[in-house]
Amino acid sequence: MTTRRQNPGRTQTWLFKALPVLTFAAVLAVWELCCWLFALPPYLLPAPSAIVTAGLDVSVARWAAHIGTTLAVALGGFCLALVVSLPMAMAIVSSRWIERGLYPLLIVVQSIPVVAITPILLVMLGPGIVARTVITFLIAFFPIVVSTVTGMASVPDDLLELSRSLRAPNRRLLREIRLPFAVAHLFAALRVSSTLAVIGTVVAEFISSDQGLGYLIFYSTSNFRIPLAFAALAVLVILSLIFFRAIVLIQRLLFPWSMATTD
């Protein structure tokens, strides 16, 4: 009797864990079936099987070159955003004057469409990897700044007053009180910015690049090789998911106490 009672619970748990994979497989099956039933041409909507075939027709070396180019720019822009955003957030929290002067400027920069400023940056910095990295940085840094500032500003007033009564210096207040309170907010922003970094890289590659997944999508659609464009898009999605899960893993390993507020 005990075994019979436990089996349904285990089955439900397995189904719950496998639900995302099962849902995705169901969507692919319906997609494949619709393309077959309605005889949709590949240039309009390729079937998943055609996308896989187009992806396998490309050599591993070519895929590695495109993925490596996109990965280098996305990681460079993301790391630059992190390096710039943390000191900026600390400065904003530490001084009302800096907050008053800097925060509106950040909002103005963020309100500029990346697609509009990309050609200008390419003229100023050239069509190389530096311009693409800066474009990726511009689209990825704002969530990190805002979330980190929000987290550091969420420290209870009583705790701040106690620290000030003990004459704790501002550097220690930032390091030992404000930053721990901001860890959960920071990693939530890093998850968002990791996917935005990939988006920024693709936007830059659309406009000026001769290699990368964004370039491959642009090249494929220009030549009506839509299955190959979908294959490159699928690789981009996988890359974004890997970025996202890497951030989660880093948080789980280094700051497990902060996971309860974000997961």
Walkthrough of the structure:
The chain has helices at 2-37, 48-57, 60-94, 96-111, 114-125, 129-152, 157-165, 170-207, 213-222, 226-254. It is mainly alpha-helical and 263 residues long. The protein has two domains: 1-39; 49-261, Orthogonal Bundle (MetI-like fold). Helix 3 runs antiparallel to helix 4 and helix 6 runs antiparallel to helix 8 (170-207). The mean pLDDT is 86.
Topology:
Blueprint lengths: L1 H36 L10 H10 L2 H35 L1 H16 L2 H12 L3 H24 L4 H9 L4 H38 L5 H10 L3 H29 L9
Helix pairs in contact: 2-10, 3-4, 3-6, 3-8, 3-9, 5-6, 5-8, 6-8, 8-9, 8-10, 9-10
| Proportion of residues in extended strands | under 5%
Rg is 23 Å
What is the global morphology? globular
Helix content: over 70%
Alpha-carbon distance between the termini?
Answer: 35 Å
Low-confidence stretches: none
- Give helix and strand order, one letter per element, not per position: HHHHHHHHHH
The residue-averaged pLDDT reads: 86
| Structural class category | mainly alpha
Q: For this entry, what is the oligomeric state of its chains? A: single chain
Figure out the total of helices. Answer: 10
Q: Characterize the biggest β-sheet.
A: none
* CATH level-two architecture of the largest domain: Orthogonal Bundle
Give the full name of the CATH homologous superfamily of the largest domain: MetI-like
Q: CATH class of the largest domain, please?
A: Mainly Alpha
How many domains in all? 2
State the total count of DSSP E strands.
Answer: 0
**What is CATH's topology name of the largest domain?**
MetI-like fold
